[in-house]
Each structure stands twice: as C-alpha cells, then as structure tokens.
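Quick check before the chapter quiz. The format below is the same one you will see on the exam, so make sure you can read both the input and the output lines.
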Amino acid sequence: MSEAKNAFYAQSGGVTAVINASACGVIETARRHSDKIANVYAGRNGIIGALTEDLIDTSRETAAAISALKHTPSGAFGSCRYKLKGLEENRAEYARLIDVFKAHDIGYFFYNGGGDSADTCHKISQLSKETGLPLQAIHIPKTVDNDLPITDNCPGFGSVAKYIAVSTREASYDVRSMAKTSTKVFVIEVMGRHAGWIAAAGGLAADSDNDIPVLILFPEVEFAKDRFIAKVQDYVGRYGYCSVVVSEGARWPDGRFLAEQDTTDAFGHAQLGGAAPVVANMVKEALGYKFHWAVADYLQRSARHIASGTDVEQAYALGKAAVDYALAGQNAIMPVIVRLSDDPYRWEIGHAALSEVANVEKFVPGEFISEDGFGITPACRAYLEPLIRGEDYPPYQKGMPQYVRLLNAPVTKKLNVEFEL
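Here is the expected output.
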C-alpha cells in the first residue's frame, strides 16, 4: 500500500485486566507510523461496531489517555460475544464488513480476542482475498482461559493466575485460623470451561514456605466423587482444613458439567451455574464439615490492581507486534509468545498462521497434573510461576485506582443502509 490506509481494531469476548494494554500497543505503534496508517478506528462493542458501522475515532484521544489504557482494565471500546457464521452460511455479514471497510478506507484489521475471534479474523482474511480488497488481518491473542494453541501463554491469563493464586493463599490462611471451631473447607470456583489453566494456578498458593492443602478440580480430569471426598477427609485430618479450587468446567465421567444448567450462551456453549456450591454441598453431606464457597467470576479477570507485570508487558508487546507485522506485509497471522527459558524467564515474539490457530484449544497437559489428579507437578509450577511475576500497579488517588475513560467519539457514517443483527 503506497498511500496511508486506516486500521480497524476491535475487542472480542470476555475482557481482561490487560486487553487495553494490547489496544495501547496497537494505537501507539500505529501513531508512530502515520505515513502508512492514517488513523485507527475502533469497533464499538467489538465486531458489532463494524457490522453496524459504529466506529470510534481514536485520533480524538490524547496521547496521555491512550497511554493510560495500559493500566486500565476491561474493554475500553466495548466488547461482544458475537460469532460470525461460516462464509457460506451468512455471506451477508461478511459482505457488510467489506462494504464498511471499503467506505472507511480500512487496510488493516486487528482483532483482539480468543479462539472464536481467531476464526473470525481468518474468515475475513479469506474474504478479502476473494473480493480483491487489500486488507491485512492480524489476530491479537487474548483469553484468560489460556487455551489458544502455539503461543506459550495468552495475555490476560497471567493476571488471572496471579489473582487466583494470591486469593487462594489468603483465603487458606483465613480458613486455617478458623478451622478448630468453624470453617474447615473453602471452595473457590474459577473460570475455565474446557481447560484448567486458571484452576492450576490455585496450586501456586502452596510452596516450600507455605504448606497449604490445596485440592484442584480440573476439566481435564473426570470428577470422581468418592476419591474427592476421601482426599478432602485426608487433608482435613492432617491439616485441620483444606481449600478446593474448582474449574467451572469440571465434569462428571459422562461428560456433563458439575454446574450445567441445560442452557447455552451466545456462542452456543453450555451455560454453567455454580460448581462451587455443588462441590461444597457434597462435602457437607458426606463429611459434615462446615464450609464456605466463593465464585471468582468477573473479579478474577478485572483485577487490574494486582495484575502480573509479565502479563502487562506481553499484552502491550503483542499489540505492538501486530502492527509491526502488518506493516511488514504479513497477513492472516497471530503474533505469539515464544518461551526461551524458565529460569531466568526469557521470551520473544513470534507468529503463527491463523489456519493453525482458529478453532483449536490447548488443554493442561497430563505432565502438568499430579498423579492423583488433584494437584500440579513441578513442571506445571515452572511454567506458571514466571507468568505471575512482577507488579504493575495503576496510579492511585484517595486510596482508589485511577482508570481512564475514553471519549469514544463516533466516526461519521458513510453508508446509507442500516444492518440488522
């Protein structure tokens, strides 16, 4: 592209403590290359913003405001759970995207999300070739579930892992102090529909200086009620208490989720209720122990105040790399994190073809799960520990973190036809 084109950036799926750091990386890098990228337009509420031609003009934001994205949680431009169907199933949606991109002179497409977003980005890349629209589509990884393939880890995960590890340790100290006459079992439910990476992070609560009995329920390990109850009884017998970290995706041997509600979400995934109360009540019924349970839910993924320094750095680096790769002529790829060593922890940025990323999930490998199925191995600890290292506190005022709220000024619409979702 000889003359400068505009870029489109959008956030997709569940937001994280560091997705805005990736947005910061994209916008700041694009601004340094104004000879090739005229402006960055963001989609209001993700890809929906493109379909409805509801674009945000990021040039209206000051450099200070864009910089503040790096320490602001959530999705600054709005996100969505909206999965485009296959090209042949609903070509109208894709045709609409192409019309919007043509109308606004979009030459770069940056989609920041998880597995479904990688699939969308790949489809748009394919369609741009088919229609002859010069468009470079780059997917920027993001998912607290840490289940994208090829990349060593996913931005968002390190901060959630840190939150869960710290919360499990702190809650365990609390339970230990009350166990003689009160609560003996604490259950915390974490995200992770199919992959137990977040649950695994709960295992970091215990180490050589903190002998804490932590029991983990992974989606990758069939839930065996009798073995679980026996393990809880053993821990309480030896320690006086125990903590249980249960993934929302923990399953019975027949494949049913412990917390399944027989409903589905916007992506067609099974809607889950609460695995924590299910597990806690099992303990109560079988052993009579007093318990408390909690669901980390949005708290775990929005906790920017305790974000991992590693996570923030990598999220920004991947946003920057997406622009660098696009300017170098790359298309239909995802920048990835390549681990070079565990100790000292060293990493670099590489890239993977979207055809190898879309619709592929990465699960916790067997060598990361202890032989009894309820804990993590040293190999898992070596993988996880570098990802939660480092503190990157936001600025505080009057005891509260200060986050930026952007103007999010709209771009004038150029198409006369409204699009119905």
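If your answer matched, good. The chain has two domains: 5-142+305-360+391-401, 157-303.
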